[in-house]
Amino acid sequence: MAAHYRAEWNARLQKAAQTTLRGKGILCAYNALVDCQVFPTAKQLQQVFNETGEIPSKEPLLVRDEKSFAQALFHSFSTGKASHVSLEKDFIKWLARRFPNHRKRLGGQAGIIASQMAQLGATSVLYSPKRPREVFGLAHPKTLFPMARKHRLVLVPVRKAARAGDAPKTNWVFEFTRGQKITANNRKTVAPRSNRLILSTPFEGALEFEASLKPLLPQLGERLCCAMLAGHHYLNKGFAHYVAEEGRAVTALKKRNSGLRIHFEYVPFEHKEVERAIMKHVTENVDSLGLNEVEIIELCEKLGLRKQANAVRKRDDAFNLYLGARALLEKLRMQRIHVHAPGFHVLVLRKPYPVPLEKVRNAILFSSIAATAKAALGREITAKELTHSLSTPLSQDGFSEMDSFARKAGLGKEFLCEGWADFGTHYAMIIPGQFAPARRGTVGLGDVVSSCSFLAEA
Prior knowledge:
Layout: H1 3-16, E1 25-30, E2 33-38, H2 42-52, E3 62-63, H3 66-79, E4 83-87, H4 92-98, E5 103-107, H5 109-119, E6 123-127, H6 133-136, E7 144-149, E8 152-157, E9 170-176, E10 181-184, E11 187-190, E12 195-200, H7 217-222, E13 226-230, H8 239-254, E14 261-265, H9 272-285, E15 288-292, H10 295-302, H11 306-314, H12 318-332, E16 336-341, E17 344-350, H13 357-377, H14 396-409, H15 413-418, E18 420-422, E19 426-432, H16 445-457
Parallel strand pairs: 1-6, 1-13, 2-9, 3-4, 4-12, 13-14, 14-15, 15-16
Antiparallel strand pairs: 2-5, 7-8, 9-12, 10-11, 16-17, 17-19, 18-19
Helix pairs in contact: 1-13, 2-3, 5-16, 8-9, 10-11, 11-12, 13-16
């Protein structure tokens, strides 16, 4: 890409840092939990592999002992891909003994998003069916929780809504750094990318609003610009009930606010039957879908879009991701698909889209700034700290993906300048992002990208 285009895009990045979320309301439901975050040293990793012998390369379905733990570690470490594997509760004691220097952070997509949006100045409402003190105490104090008092809706600070008797859900998160080296199966392996393995314990809460709150959802919807729903991948028995209840909840939230838009952040499901029901529900009730370059492969495969899944698996470039996202847009009848990949973003927007494309582009650049600052600082960021990442230019890989997409799609200079193209029924957007090699944690970065970009559009 020509230098003057890159200069224009980086100027837009600087301008995007001035974006504010103040005065914008967002509801985040349902999963809030404790993440036990571990940055294992090379010595700690090697010790795990030395003790377990030969390790299968395939990712396990469940981590229940040292062997399956080593297997999950090796798969995530060697591929450089984010992994999410179920964790048997009885194995937590072993993890706590082996990695005593773990850090406890607020986890769960709803929890992460709600707390970060409050930190950035939004009116951020978190709803979780369980309210453990250990979880809510990790949230930003300005995060709000909806409650019914004398048949009226009140939004109280989340820490005041905590209940002593509610037990927290705990996940273990292992963060790897690009370039780390281990020896396993008699060969040396180098981590190709900074990423993480998430070991997830069962979710015991009901994914629905409390009975006293349900009649008040129209009032809550009036105060919102958007809502982000997550945690459905925990569903198992009784999922049909929760799907029906959420459909009614979405209708209620939109009753007095027809412009309220709903976003669903995808996570692969363990149970295929549940996933089919949830994706049907998404088709009927959700406007926007967010996922990364790994998750789109799995979702496309599960929806019968094998050609698109295989193309992305072979090469996860912007063009193949666009073809996958376009297929999902049509299959799920969505308004918006957002694929966030290292160094660039791919969006497919159904026409007519309710937001000017310039505003969508600015929102994506803003989300890149926020995620890059969070990655660099290793924690939630304030609005003032957004400038921390402005010294990181937009990724050269992102510009290269734009060039490649333009060639494959037969597009010209206008696309390279603006970042979008009109394909009749929809718009395609390829937006370069920042990509900082030095990171202090990758958990929640995709959630920050999705939420900041979606709310900044409002």
